[in-house]
Write a structure and sequence with these properties.
Elements: E1 6-13, E2 19-25, H1 39-43, E3 64-66, E4 81-85, E5 90-95, E6 100-104, E7 109-112, E8 123-129, E9 137-143, E10 155-163, E11 166-175, E12 192-198, E13 203-208, E14 212-217, E15 222-227, E16 233-240, E17 245-250, E18 256-259, E19 272-275, E20 285-296, E21 299-315, E22 318-335, E23 362-373, E24 378-383
Parallel strand pairs: 12-16
Antiparallel strand pairs: 1-2, 1-24, 2-3, 4-5, 5-6, 6-7, 8-9, 9-10, 10-11, 12-13, 13-14, 14-15, 16-17, 17-18, 18-19, 20-21, 21-22, 22-23
Length: 384
């Protein structure tokens, strides 16, 4: 898999409600060293960060601007956009009215798409990219907290394919069956805690709090029950084809980790084998928001959001925020250790060997970290 050149940011201006796409050119604003730093330097990377010395990452001018349809038919009358990365250059956007379009950042063009059957309030997504031969791509969108109404249209897919009446490929929308646990007697809305694409796109896997883990077969469009356990990761897990593992955030403490999730298709609970602890300066208060983007070739961009409080200053009994900022870090996964390297250890003292993968050992390398201070009415909504 080739390495991406652009990192896509979707910003929102809360004053006028306009969203904008900003594309950071990673060939000019580097997040990676030419060669990986030694394990000791990588392990202490975040602890040694200093706001006064950190290099800033420059957010470029907008390459596209868009805004939701100001309709009072929107969910809760809130005008909001949801943006989903299909690939480096293609982003699918929907609003709270269900209207949708594809933004091709490479050609700076917009493609109209079928509207969602039902607008989504807080969706999760699964991207399945087809082969170069068939070019078929799919984006699956599901409500993160499904209701008990199976007819509400809580799970849908955008498919780029041919139809029964045309050989030309186009975007089509399909309604899909919701996860079966919403039909359980006495079901109360439960949040989907983690999700991932398995089997190269053959299955979509979710874990819902209080209901266990289910897999959706994208060919038969049927759900199957994997077990009353949860995937050991939080949010979306990214598949790393070069290492045949999944990379994401650990459940609970939201630290970088890897895990082999393929056993979920066999009804077996995956085990977490690697967690790397990132220790930031003590006065950096984490907002609990972490964005992970796969850049290809076992490289990732981690974006963490923090705030620093003014010392001794209070308003209405609470501390006053002095600074809001985001930290962009380039991370790389290496299989086994280079000669002379010291293997990082897990918290329990075991080495980073992934079970089921023979003697494969994984080392996570922290490269560069760069700073962006959040000011005014603009916030970073998505990193894609």
């Amino acid at each position: 898999m080739s390495t991406r050149r652009f990192l896509n940011l979707v910003l929102q201006n809360y004053k006028d409600g306009i969203y904008s796409l900003r594309r950071i050119d990673l060939s000019r604003q580097h997040l990676f060293y030419p060669t990986p730093p030694p394990p000791e330097a990588s392990a202490d990377h975040h602890k040694r960060l200093d706001l006064q010395e950190m290099e800033s990452i420059r957010i470029p001018a907008a390459s596209a601007r868009f805004q939701p349809n100001p309709s009072f038919d929107s969910i809760k009358h809130i005008w909001k956009m949801h943006c989903f990365g299909l690939s480096e250059n293609k982003i699918i956007c929907t609003d709270n009215s269900g209207l949708a379009f594809l933004l091709d950042a490479g050609s700076r063009s917009f493609v109209t798409m079928p509207s969602l059957h039902t607008p989504k309030w807080c969706p999760i997504s699964f991207s399945v990219i087809g082969s170069e031969q068939d070019g078929a791509s799919s984006l699956y969108v599901m409500e993160k907290v499904p209701s008990s109404d199976p007819e509400e249209g809580q799970f849908e897919a955008f498919l780029y394919t041919t139809s029964e009446t045309s050989y030309n490929k186009s975007w089509y929308r399909h309604s899909l069956p919701p996860p079966p646990y919403i039909l359980d007697p006495g079901y109360k809305r439960a949040r989907i805690h983690s999700h991932a694409v398995l089997g190269g796109g053959s299955h979509l896997c979710i874990s819902a709090i209080g209901h266990g883990t289910y897999c959706f077969d994208t060919a038969s469009r049927e759900w199957s029950y994997s077990g009353d356990w949860m995937l050991p990761m939080y949010g979306k897990a990214e598949y790393v084809p070069e290492l045949d593992i999944w990379f994401g955030l650990s459940d609970g403490d939201l630290q970088p980790c890897v895990c082999d999730l393929s056993s979920a298709l066999r009804g077996q609970k995956p085990e977490l084998h690697n967690i790397w602890r990132n220790h930031y300066p003590p006065d950096w208060n984490s907002l609990g928001i972490t964005k992970i983007v796969s850049l290809g070739s076992v490289r990732f961009c981690f974006v963490n959001f923090f705030e620093i409080m003014e010392q001794g200053v209070y308003c209405f009994g609470g501390p006053v925020v002095d600074l809001n900022f985001a930290v962009f870090t380039g991370m790389e996964l290496l299989s086994s250790c280079a000669e002379g390297d010291k293997l990082l250890m897990n918290d329990n003292g075991s080495d980073n060997t992934v079970n089921g993968k023979g003697t494969q050992r994984i080392r996570m390398v922290n490269h560069m970290s760069k700073l962006h201070v959040l000011t005014g009415y603009t916030t970073i909504e998505e990193v894609l």
